[in-house]
Design brief:
Layout lengths: L2 H15 L9 E5 L5 E8 L2 E7 L2 E7 L8 E7 L3 E2 L3 H6 L13 E11 L5 E9 L2 E14 L2 E11 L16 E14 L1
Antiparallel strand pairs: 1-4, 1-11, 2-3, 2-11, 3-6, 4-5, 5-7, 7-8, 8-9, 9-10, 10-11
């Protein structure tokens, strides 16, 4: 038994013996951005295209025993969006796409978490891209690997909801409206 679990059990026993309620609070986790990834997939002329955000930050306060007290937030550096080609990367920073000079960050802030079927979490929150905020909800799988907790999930969105692809790019015959955001966030206590 580890020292940490011994201390936790002792605090629990003392609070129960004293008749005090033990308040379940979420605990901040350290995000390992080197092992984490945020990526998207969309279709261009019906061909899947994958891209990643090379820079992002996340704050996760999580309590498995009281999931509803947990919260998370993510900031994506739009200028770090990488399609694997410098010319394409420069193009998507323009006003018609991400408009990175005016909207350098996209972000997500949770408004609620709860247990869901199959051991998953259901996460709700507000997603803001290019100055447009919408309420979203999506499942998240939580895994343990050694001391790490890994949060994985997908969030399908419509790019036109966020004005990504303005002017002639609103035509979805070239670039589909559907975009899937995939994430794998590795955290440590």
């Amino acid at each position: 038994m580890s020292l940490r679990s011994t201390i936790t059990r002792s605090v629990f026993a003392l609070s129960m013996a004293a008749g005090l309620p033990l308040l379940a609070q979420a605990a901040p986790l350290k995000v390992d951005t080197a092992k984490s990834q945020v990526a998207i997939t969309f279709k261009q002329m019906n061909v899947p295209v994958d891209a990643t955000f090379k820079k992002f930050s996340a704050a996760i306060d999580f309590n498995a025993a009281a999931v509803t007290s947990s919260k998370a937030s993510f900031d994506l550096d739009v200028a770090s969006f990488d399609l694997g080609d410098a010319q394409y990367n420069k193009e998507v920073q323009k006003k018609e796409w991400f408009n990175a000079p005016q909207f350098p960050k996209a972000n997500f802030v949770s408004t609620g978490m709860k247990q869901a079927a199959g051991g998953k979490l259901e996460v709700s929150g507000n997603l803001t891209i290019k100055g447009k905020t919408t309420a979203v909800s999506f499942p998240v799988t939580l895994k343990k690997e050694g001391n790490s907790q890994i949060f994985e999930g997908t969030l399908p969105i419509k790019r036109l909801t966020y004005n990504i692809g303005e002017g002639e790019w609103k035509d979805t015959s070239m670039v589909a409206d559907e975009v899937v955001i995939r994430f794998r966030i590795v955290t440590n206590p």
